[in-house]
Amino acid sequence: MQGRPTINDVAQAAGVSKSAVSYALSGRGRIGAETRERVLAVAAELGWQPSQQARGLSSSRTYAIGLVFARPAELIGADPFFAPFIAGVEAELSHHKYALLSQVIVGGEAEEEEGYRRLASGGRVDGMILTDLRDIDPRISLLRDLGMPYVAVGRPMQAIDGPAVSNDDSASVTSAVDHLADLGHQRIAQVSGSRALVHGLERERAFHRALAARGLYAGTVIPGDFTGQSGAEGMCALLELSHRPTAIIFANALMAIAGMQEAARQGVSVPADISVVALDDNPIAPFVTPALTAVHTDVLLWGSLSARTIMAWIEGASDTADVTLPSELVVRGSTAPPPSP
Amino acid sequence: MQGRPTINDVAQAAGVSKSAVSYALSGRGRIGAETRERVLAVAAELGWQPSQQARGLSSSRTYAIGLVFARPAELIGADPFFAPFIAGVEAELSHHKYALLSQVIVGGEAEEEEGYRRLASGGRVDGMILTDLRDIDPRISLLRDLGMPYVAVGRPMQAIDGPAVSNDDSASVTSAVDHLADLGHQRIAQVSGSRALVHGLERERAFHRALAARGLYAGTVIPGDFTGQSGAEGMCALLELSHRPTAIIFANALMAIAGMQEAARQGVSVPADISVVALDDNPIAPFVTPALTAVHTDVLLWGSLSARTIMAWIEGASDTADVTLPSELVVRGSTAPPPSP
DNA sequence: CTTCCGTGCTGAACCGGTTGTGCATCGTGA
DNA sequence: TCACGATGCACAACCGGTTCAGCACGGAAG
Q1: Beta carbons within 10 angstroms of residue B184's beta carbon
Q2: For tag attachment on chain B, is the N or C end more exposed, with fewer CB atoms within 10 Å?
Q3: How far is the CA of B31 from the C1' of D29 (A)?
Q4: What is residue B240's predicted lDDT score, i.e. its pLDDT?
Q5: pTM for this structure?
Q6: What backbone phi and psi angles, to 5 degrees, belong to B189?
Q7: Are B254 and A287 in contact (CB under 8 A)?
């Protein structure tokens, strides 16, 4: 009885066999009411918790979900997605006795795939949550070959035979464009994130659709990479245009804030001369000057729904339908009507 | 042979017993050279990876480390510590075949302790990394009672019988004070984070020590809670003082940025009228206006060292000495000499 | 030629659970 | 009164590894 108590310790203390203990706890077998209560009392007294390792060995389940998260080093701290997403996943998983095996990787795709392989082939997880989907993503087929359940965070372009939990990028972009158009802006530009990721592509298409829907001319799209540096460069490039836009939509708050700094340095006033919107919110956004107008998504909820979806698949549910999250434009101080000509 | 191959599949294919396979892989038993190579070849061909579950069951090890991370909801996304710290931990762990079982908890201490209990008593981890140590922390004794190795991130006040990996809060504060004193500031105030956390206390003491060392009078300390809101309130309170400070040290970048916004709203110019320093850096800090001067710590390294330390304890090493990280003041645009009177 | 030891491998027990099978015991209906 | 089904539990096999004890064989020493 040194160390953690085992099921044998409980069985011995309760004067029953270990199968009786197992049945009493799971409620699966046929166990008399007073025996069950005695066993539960003894288990509680000894502080016994079944070993997940042993349980997993016989059920060939690990009761753990894997999450691999890859970002370049300069983004890993700035990204306001990671922590709340994990928190949401966790909140849901822990109610169902699942654990989260996470792996954050600084670096590129090679390391990321290695991360998946490690978690999957070690038999450590029952399923995986995939973030940052790329246009044609090798992880999908990797996991399908391994027979590992997965859920895609963000809707992929390719058919994936699996569930996806996505925020509505199209709606986000549309709400940003509509807000700017309502203010009277006619020349709206975009500084995008990585076009290699599916939501980058989707946002770009949605941008052009939304402009067309409001009868506006096609806006300039400057490619970026989610870093502050690229946000500043995007602003710089747009300010040099002969036909300068009066509003810019940035892929995330970091880029937008860096862009606003660049504008300030060039003596361009936000929002008087140019309006700025970010497509991802950040807790710092309300506190910069001017406060940043951004499209806000409930990332905590996003995590919860992802967790619920992957667990449903693992448990064999058939209703692994796709889920779409709402997002909401939060108007703060960085948008205003365009300057009168 | 459906699903993942097991050690039995390998043994059968190689024409040996499963113990021979185990020995061949671990190099522990006495196995002939050509038998070993044949086994390894077959294992590679079948793509066999030993199940960590089964391995853990017999070795009573899980090859996993637990990390519980608790933050209030409004901070969980803003905190630039979490993601790079995990990334650093991961980078180190994965080289040694360990996995990271993380748990991010939105909420208070009760949920957090529950999180520890769940990971520890489920037998899921071999050791734990403790962050956000409080002055007298119940987790220490909890883990000690469970016989679970742990490493404290940040040096606790109480004696803990265990290793700690800390950044040097005292040095951080001192470098900030020295920088401001060098610029000529005489009245320096602090807006602190939570005093319940050990590094909050340590920073406050170091603040007073550093002021005294420079022959400056004791500075005002306004309590905060790491949120932007509290940063703005702190700035507000300090601006109302009859003998207004000329420089303020904030506990983190979010508070500092919110404080600068509040100053701007009141028509107080940073850094012309008042200088601002943050004790934790943030990737957004260079991009706000003015760019925020902050004390920077290599959080990735912090994570790596924590991982190395906890693994050393688990593997039975005796050299679990405390580690202290360097930090560095990054001077940007939010500090300047005080206004001439 | 026997004894002895080292080498190379096998068989079996074990880690801590889950689950199928089977044996008493008891109550019920014919 | 006896057959029969339901109930309550024990026994044992199994999940996939690790590891200990032991057996067969070969070469070297006596």
Answers
A1: 13
A2: C
A3: 25
A4: 96
A5: 0.91
A6: -115, 165
A7: yes
